[in-house]
Amino acid sequence: MDRFITASETKVFVMSRAIIFTVLLSAILVVGTISPALAAQLEIRMNPEADFATGEMKYQKTVFIEYNDGGKIADQLRGKEFSVVFTADATDPGVAKLRDQLNQNIASKGSNTHITDLIVEYSAHLTGRGLNTSIDYKVILKPTINDYVIRQYSENSPALVDVSWRGLAVSGPFVLNTLQYGDVEINMPISFIKSILPDTYSVIAGTEAETLLSKSIIDASFIGEQPIANWHFLFDPTGINVDASTYGLDESISGFVVSTFTMGESSLREGRQVERVEEAQFTADAPYVVRTVQSADNANLKVIGFAAVDKLEGVEVLGVSPQAPQGYATTSTGGFPVSIIYGMAAMAGIGAIAILLFSSRQLKKEEGKGQQGIDPSQLRGYETSSAAGGYQTNRGEAQLISDAEYERHRSVYEEEKPQSGGNKGGAMPKDWKPSS
After folding, report:
1. Which are the contacts of 169, defined by CB distance < 8 A and separation ≥ 6?
2. CB 297 within 8 A of CB 223
3. Domain annotation covers residue 133
């Protein structure tokens, strides 16, 4: 017998699809609105014809102090919220010391590039909650970089630009003097706790958590360790016409290309990019957990001209020419053949057409079939409830108009079965009478 699809089943099916769609849409919205704090983020623009370049390096780290079982730290931090924010330049002895340490870090890579000026922006924001406290640290360095051009461009050879300096990192404390907060150490998370929250520091001191919180914030080592040949590469042959003013350039160099190297996306070449999470547990008056979280590093390095990666005596350099080679075409995968890209697009188009043809044929097969089961026009309503004491209910049932339709659809379980072997627990015999 053909199965009749009930309204309740249809409703369940529709609700299930609606729930699935809602969950998927919510996931997309959540992922789209999350903006993770990147551990280290480099942004710089370099011109082989200029004497210097200015850039920006951001370092971010979040510290969580968890106290699920309460304790002294919970009592000290719950409900607290405050920030420390300031800016300093190279006139501050602490900034000058930081600049010198960064130059030593660059020189250790075999590079002659050095920082001549430096601006530091620092912020730390504490938020105390019921079960944990978070402290968000951000250090922004704005260096002025000189001597990154190893060789100027000539008609016979490209310019050579040094990029080995990019992994800026230092260790140890760097104390800056501020008018509003006095002396502030900017490189170790534990320093903020020690200075602003001495009672909390007294509980953490001497534990594994203090060791964890003594690690440097200013550390972009991974950006320097990742070979720039593995970064994504793009160039814009017309970009300089539009963006010349952002580079401080005039129209005389109009027509130069802009090369962009980007690091931070997980790929087969760059490897899997994951956030870095470290944890330390200790017990004082109560058990505590201290956790540091940093997202994957990210870098964008832009160069005026067409840049190709090379090495000079072990130092990573870019060979830069005013124009791209004749007929050169590339994508973010670095020289991926255009023919393959068009081929993949064509295959995707063929696949889409095949799916549409298959769907069209299926619809034609099902056309006219409609809903299977008893035709509603062959049903009529029949009242099954009568008045009782002046009360009338609205109960009823649907019955078939003709017996022929019933015979076609009736259940096999309604068919009479032949009786054999006497009555064994079945219906009472017709001639049965109660005993007197």
Report:
1. 105, 216, 218, 219, 220, 221, 224
2. yes
3. yes
Q: Please report how many Cα atoms fall inside a 13 Å half-sphere around the Cα of residue 99, on the Cβ side.
A: 22
Cα-only R_g, the chain: 38
Write down the pTM of the prediction: 0.65
Which token pair is 11? 């409703």
Centroid of chain to Cα 309? 29
Determine the Cα–Cα distance for residues 320 and 160; give it in Å rounded to an integer: 6
Residues 6+ apart with CB under 8 A from 27: none
- Residue 293 CA to residue 309 CA, distance in Å, equals 33
Largest CA distance in the chain: 129
Question: Is the residue at 410 inside a domain?
Answer: no
Identify the CA nearest to 137 among candidates 200, 214, 74, 192.
192
H or E stretch covering 98? helix 93-107
Go through 356-385 and write b for each residue having 16 or more CB atoms within 10 A of its CB, e for each that does not.
Answer: eeeeeeeeeeeeeeeeeebeeeeeeeeeee
Mean per-residue pLDDT pooled into runs of 10, the chain (436 residues): 47 48 44 46 90 92 94 94 94 95 93 94 96 96 94 88 93 92 94 94 95 94 88 74 56 68 70 79 94 89 90 88 69 50 74 82 67 66 58 62 61 55 48 50
Q: Which residues are CB-contacts of 57 (< 8 A; sequence separation ≥ 6)? A: 40, 41, 42, 43, 140, 141, 142, 143, 168, 220
Which residue has tokens 């309204």?
7
**Residue 173 located in a structural domain:** yes
254 assigned to some structural domain: no
For residue 188, what are the domain limits?
33-231+265-301
- What's the structural domain count of the chain? 1
